Input
Amino acid sequence: MLDVGVALFKRPFQLREFLQQAWFIVTVTIVPTALVSIPFGAVIALQIGGLLKQFGAQSFSGSASVLAVVREAGPIATALLIAGAAGSAIAADFGARKIREELDAMMVLGIDPIQRLVVPRVLACMMIAVFLNGLVTIVGVAGGYVFNVVLQGGTPGAYIASFTALAQLPDMYQGMIKALIFGFIAAIVAAYKGMNAKGGPKGVGDAVNEAVVITFVLLFIVNFFISALYLQLVPPKGM
Amino acid sequence: MGTEIAIEGLTKSFGNQLIWKDVTLTLPAGEISVMLGPSGTGKSVLLKTLIGLLKPDEGHIWIEGTDIANCKEKELYEIRKLFGVLFQDGAMFGSMDLYDNVAFPLREHTKKSESEIRNIVMDKMELVGLLGAENKLPGEISGGMRKRAGLARALVLEPEILLVDEPDSGLDPVRTAYLNQLFIDLNAQIDATFLIVTHDINSCRTVPDNIGLLYHKHLAMFGPREMLLSSEEPVVAQFLNAQRVGPIGMSEEKDADELEAEKNIKMPPLPPIPLQITTSNGRPRRAAREPGAWCRENGVTPPPGSFGENVSTAPGAGAEVSA
Output
């Protein structure tokens, strides 16, 4: 991990590899992300909608839904997909390269695989995580809107107008920073596990499995700490 | 001009399993050396240690004044540019076709234009007989072709040291013979120091200038080809002539009972020493020596019939044991 930190700033930067990887990650994550975020938004809308109705605070349902999606659901859904789709692909790729001695061959050719392969993937993962976070947020809020307005009989105007009642701009930044960190963790864990795969094809399978499980656990823990920290540091918006 | 590799007191173990201990030898600059040993004696580990992929527990490896066993990562990447390495399976990058694979080191390490790269790559592809297969992916070709492509890639940076891991495993005898000839010709052409790890005895009897034998966690012997081929030392004689009589058993070492049982069987006489392969175009090779020169200088009588034109290189001749 320290090696990656150092190699991040080493020249020459592998722009081509970075772009290829970024595109690759987009292709494996974008459709599942969209599909996951619709029910995510909808579930939140359903839960909150029902609850708020009992309080008679229906006009705030848009606001609550935005708050939940932007602060938690967005980064979490991003984390799941980055770890599950991108992380597993990266771990499998590195694992296969490792057992075919490709990584050794690369080192022998005088090329550092961390700089040549890992760094572009880590950066690509971080960038795409932020984009995905945006996508989840938009699709989630839109999904919530549809459910709230169409199924629960909420008023469109109230849903949209209350957006800013509880949510604030730092919520957005916080979500983006979370996504950035999640992307970093997922790529590092996947690359590390893949590069240390051993014992033939079975080792690759094990490495992918471990990478995904470890990333999931780490991401949920890190998410908790960032959320706790954020709630301490940034005062909630007064009403 | 090749580079000398001096290995001093090298020891390596994985956990508490000792691989080899106190290996000391010098690979002379510009000469071809072969490292032999029964399966599982750590020949490949030695090769990987030489390029710094594995760190030895003790000892030094001196190349041009740098100790690769104890130097910094950065120095290691610098010194590796002197090396060309051919891995057992070729280790081609699966996502690139053969052309890109061979061009890879050039694109990463030099500022050559694409047309210059193309010339060099095509030149090396022709050398290993792979013209026409440039656009195939490594997954689409046979193991032998992968190996030859790996050799082409190892050669593009004009290495001063060429390390080769089992060039003949999985190759047919004809291709092996061609490959052996190629090693000799290459050595004459680029003067690099060669280290070939193998257990093909035909190759080892006819190709190298020097032979080393790893056995039972140590270096049993290392020296000029004729010294080992005329040696009566049981381990060396047994291995170089592919016989069952001797200290090497099916699982590493024979136990006392087995050795007792063959106490009265005499080792068959050493077969004649074959001539070393010469370059195909008659170009003189710097490291090549006159046949029998070592034996004469050291007062050793080579086995009868040595250095004749028609010495059979087939291993195991007369190796039958009537027990």
User: Anything to note?
Assistant: Chain B has eleven helices and ten strands.
